[in-house]
Specification:
Layout: E1 11-13, H1 15-26, E2 28-31, E3 34-37, E4 43-48, H2 53-56, E5 64-68, E6 71-72, H3 78-85, E7 92-99, E8 102-109, E9 111-114, E10 118-123, E11 129-134, H4 141-154, E12 160-163, H5 172-180, E13 187-192, E14 200-204, E15 216-220, H6 227-237, E16 241-245, E17 253-259, E18 265-274, E19 290-291, H7 300-311
Parallel strand pairs: 11-12, 12-15, 15-16, 16-19
Antiparallel strand pairs: 1-18, 2-9, 3-4, 4-5, 5-6, 5-7, 7-8, 10-11, 13-14, 13-18, 17-18
Helix pairs in contact: 5-6
Length: about 325
């Protein structure tokens, strides 16, 4: 029945998979730490979670999974594949991948993954610049951002680098709250259910921003998806930030979640997200204002963001 809808994001997830997703957003679970997407018929990696076994195994955004422990997964559901990949810490799983058209096999040792939603620091240099990386939009993201950003501002930060690379998304409420820390007043996004303009619902900023007047550079890449794309688009469309890096993933549909009697969940696509200027994210992604591919041996996008914030221009 679900497959007959013809929408890859309308799915039925088992109780076990639903709990795993909830645990990930709470901040701790056992597995390999992969965010997956089957939007184009292929099982594609959105992003390995920061600090996860998958990141250590050098799995990349855009990799296509074709086999798990030697089993072809073409005819398996996303729930079945996830069940084969996850498992207790200390055990291993072999993933058959296709990267840029080339097949390869990666063995990943599962572990307990502590998801740090927010990490921050002052960047080195004569001018204080705050660096804030958000790895996922979890229940604690907004609180952690406020707690970590405040001391950086007290230390005299003149601007903020907001790093959303490899961020697969999470809670919409967290995305709205994060945007609200950098924007005094404005539309964060629209939820579009199709048809007339009356079917378009606006989500506005909430609360008191901490850094509404500081310049912001947002780092994005093809692993930036969903809630990460919402924040990036909201800050750019409201003239609060420039986007630096690579084109984002393009996940912008809205799913209503129905919990069934056996604790499984039916997720039904009911709408899509639009940016404040009315552009669809789904299937399109966001093009950066300054395109800077990742480079081996140095963080070129971060270097470009610093140059932009200090001098008003960036060079990849």
């Amino acid at each position: 029945m679900v497959a007959a809808v013809g929408d890859p994001y309308t799915t039925l997830t088992s109780a076990q998979q639903s709990e795993l997703t909830a645990a990930q957003l709470r901040g701790s679970f056992e597995g390999v730490g992969l965010e997956l997407d089957r939007g184009d018929g292929q099982l594609r990696v959105i992003s390995p979670l920061a600090g996860s076994p998958s990141e250590r195994a050098q799995i990349r955004s855009g990799d296509v999974i074709v086999a798990v422990d030697g089993v072809d997964i073409a005819q398996l559901s996303l729930d079945d594949v996830s069940g084969r990949i996850r498992g207790p810490r200390g055990t291993s799983v072999s993933l058959g991948l296709v990267r840029d058209g080339n097949p390869l096999t990666v063995v990943v040792v599962r572990d307990t993954i502590k998801v740090e939603s927010v990490r921050s620091r002052l960047l080195p240099g004569d001018t204080p610049l705050a660096y804030v990386r958000i790895n996922i939009f979890s229940e604690l993201t907004s609180q952690q951002l406020r707690e970590q950003l405040a001391p950086l501002l007290t230390q005299g930060s003149k601007a903020v680098v907001l790093d959303l690379r490899g961020n697969p998304g999470g809670y919409l409420t967290a995305a709205v709250d994060v945007t609200s820390d950098f924007l005094k007043d404005g539309v964060v996004l629209y939820q579009d259910r199709g048809g007339t303009d009356a079917a378009r619902q606006a989500y506005h900023t909430s609360g008191s921003p901490q850094a509404a007047d500081l310049p912001v550079a947002v780092l994005v890449d093809r692993g930036s998806a969903s809630a990460a794309e919402i924040v990036a688009a909201a800050l750019r469309d409201n003239q609060r930030a420039v986007l630096i890096g690579e084109k984002t993933f393009g996940k912008g549909t809205v799913q209503e979640v129905h919990k069934l009697s056996d604790d499984s969940q039916l997720r039904v696509t009911v709408a899509q997200w639009l940016t404040p200027t009315g552009h669809a994210i789904q299937g399109e992604g966001l093009l950066p204002d300054v395109e800077v591919p990742a480079a081996e041996g140095r963080d070129a996008p971060l270097d470009a963001a610093v140059q932009y914030l200090l001098h008003g221009s960036a060079h990849g």
